[in-house]
């Protein structure tokens, strides 16, 4: 009897200890998240301040850097996005066509499904994640190495603002890159979607398919698509540059900074996407 | 070198009063306190300090790259550090050479040297190319002009850092441990070149540059620098000329004089 009471007391203490442990862990996580939000927010304000104030300063230096970033976050990723668009078209039509045909809607809904899934949601988000994986991670490594090698101090000694030299071209390049790649991805997916429908013998004429697409889209879709993709580009560039540049790094800390940057970029993109969903629903 | 023969301007080039220097890596750590120092135009200072005593932090504060933790610091009469775009022209009168050059890894040696010209000056592409060629020739860097820093030996990167700092023809040049890790031939070249700069080299329009260099040892600088200071145990000693140094009883200074 006494033994079982002792066991119960120990179990209770363990439970209360564990709950305190979980509460501490949660508190630490929330605190870290707020600190990161504060840091990234401040860095974003500094970056936009520099972009507004120094947009036309030293154009001959900054313009080639912007072109390089557009090439890196846009042009060079085109082959990968061609493959992704083929795969997306196959996945969406391959999954949707059999289900829609059960209700006899293959002539009516495939274009609408494409518009809702690809144009409004999957296209911009998938593009942002792919660019984050290919270019965002490289940003953290490059800037973290530059910071560790003293290049930031070098620029400051030369009277060059590191945000102007390192961050501004990346923000512009990534915003333009993600916007352009999303357009390519959507066009490719729409095209490959019809191709896969044709291969699966879905009785759908091209004119019907494109009419459905056109009918499902409004001017708001194009405006919000442009805003959303540019917002994704800006936030990925800012978060990755913040983790590479805004704090002194040793070379061995760069991998951890990259992991943090990817996690925070994904969360930020999903939150922005949620805001745009609200905008779709309310406007 | 007779320092009394140098004309001293009314406004000191660098003037520090009660300055506290913090560590770059750990800003809460203090490297030196109560620092009083005046540098006049045309002087050639060497600041001796043992390794890890904070001479890079001190020089970065003097170069306006770091803000001092406390105290007053002026450069040619204007409060430092300068980060505002409106006062940048004043800030660019000071050049800074980092230990190892600290060149931008994505640019070639020539592009690194051209960077301040392309960013700040209104020179044409042809004029910039001509100026870069002039600097490459003066520092014997022509064979490495189109190489990125990673493909060039550290001693040549250091020279490229010097060429980059001279690109905008500054009035004052700060050099962080320029002789560290150099062989005899490079050391002789640096001391000779800095001597020419302090007298007036054609690469900077024949005007006499004010120089401040930090060093792990003072011996190589005898006969080249005309003013000596020492940083030891968080204290900065502005000693003046070599005769004062030789008569000093400071143990740290005697140690520095042997190397």
Structural domain tally of chain B: 2
Radius of gyration over C-alpha positions of chain B, nearest whole angstrom: 18 Å
**What sort of overall outline of chain B do the alpha carbons produce when their principal axes are compared?**
globular
- Quote the CATH topology of the largest domain in chain B: Rossmann fold
The succession of helices and strands of chain A, N to C, reads HHHHHHHHH
CATH level 1 name of the largest domain in chain B: Alpha Beta
Number of E-type strands of chain B: 10
Number of domains of chain A: 1
Q: Estimate the helix proportion of chain B, in percent.
A: 25-40%
Shape of chain A: flat
- Summing up helix and strand content along with how strands pair, one would put the structural category of chain A as mainly alpha
- Give the averaged pLDDT of chain B, no decimals: 88
Q: Tell me about the biggest sheet of chain A? A: none
Second-tier CATH architecture of the largest domain in chain B: 3-Layer(aba) Sandwich
Strand portion of chain B = 15-25%
């Amino acid at each position: 009897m006494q033994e079982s009471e002792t066991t119960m007391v120990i179990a209770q203490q363990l439970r209360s200890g564990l709950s305190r442990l979980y509460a501490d862990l949660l508190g630490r996580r929330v605190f870290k998240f707020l600190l990161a939000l504060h840091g990234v927010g401040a860095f974003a304000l500094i970056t936009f301040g520099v972009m507004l104030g120094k947009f036309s300063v030293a154009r001959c230096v900054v313009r080639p850097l912007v072109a390089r970033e557009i090439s890196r976050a846009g042009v060079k990723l085109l082959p990968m996005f061609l493959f992704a668009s083929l795969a997306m078209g196959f996945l969406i039509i391959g999954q949707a066509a059999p289900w829609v045909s059960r209700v006899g809607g293959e002539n009516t809904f495939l274009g609408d499904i494409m518009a809702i899934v690809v144009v409004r949601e999957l296209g911009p988000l998938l593009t942002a994640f792919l660019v984050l994986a290919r270019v965002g991670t490289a940003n953290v490594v490059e800037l973290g190495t530059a910071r560790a090698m003293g290049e930031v101090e070098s620029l400051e000694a030369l009277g060059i603002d590191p945000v102007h030299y390192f961050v501004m071209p990346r923000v512009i390049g990534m915003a333009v890159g993600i916007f352009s790649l999303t357009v390519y991805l959507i066009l490719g997916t729409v095209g490959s979607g019809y191709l896969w429908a044709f291969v699966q013998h879905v009785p759908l004429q091209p004119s019907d398919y494109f009419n459905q697409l056109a009918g499902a889209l409004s001017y708001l879709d194009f405006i919000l698509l442009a805003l959303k993709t540019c917002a994704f580009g800006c936030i990925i560039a800012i978060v990755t540059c913040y983790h590479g540049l805004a704090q002194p790094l040793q070379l061995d800390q760069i991998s951890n900074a990259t992991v943090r940057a990817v996690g925070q970029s994904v969360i930020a993109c999903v939150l922005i996407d949620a805001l745009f969903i609200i905008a779709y629903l309310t406007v | 070198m007779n320092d009394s023969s140098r004309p001293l301007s009314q406004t000191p080039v660098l003037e520090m009063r009660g300055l506290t220097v913090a560590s770059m890596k750990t800003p809460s750590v203090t490297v030196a306190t109560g620092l009083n120092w005046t540098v006049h135009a045309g002087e050639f200072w060497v600041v001796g300090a043992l390794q890890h005593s904070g001479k890079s932090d001190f020089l970065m504060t003097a170069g306006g790259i770091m803000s001092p933790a406390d105290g007053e610091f002026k450069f040619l009469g204007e409060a430092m550090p300068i980060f505002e775009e409106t006062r940048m022209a004043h800030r660019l009168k000071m050049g800074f050479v980092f230990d190892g050059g600290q060149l931008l890894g994505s640019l070639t040696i020539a592009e690194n040297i051209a960077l301040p010209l392309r960013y700040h000056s209104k020179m044409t592409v042809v004029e910039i190319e001509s100026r870069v060629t002039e600097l490459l020739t003066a520092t014997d860097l022509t064979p490495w002009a189109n190489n990125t820093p990673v493909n060039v030996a550290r001693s040549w990167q250091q020279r490229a850092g010097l060429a980059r700092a001279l690109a905008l023809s500054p009035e004052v040049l700060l050099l962080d441990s320029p002789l560290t890790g150099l062989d005899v031939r490079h050391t002789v070249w640096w001391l000779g070149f800095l001597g020419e700069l302090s007298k007036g080299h054609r690469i900077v329009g024949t005007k006499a540059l004010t120089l401040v260099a930090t060093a792990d040892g003072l011996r190589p600088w005898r006969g080249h620098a005309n003013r000596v200071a020492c940083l030891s145990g968080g204290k900065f000693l502005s000693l003046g000329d070599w005769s004062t140094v030789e008569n000093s009883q400071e143990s740290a200074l005697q140690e520095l004089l042997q190397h």
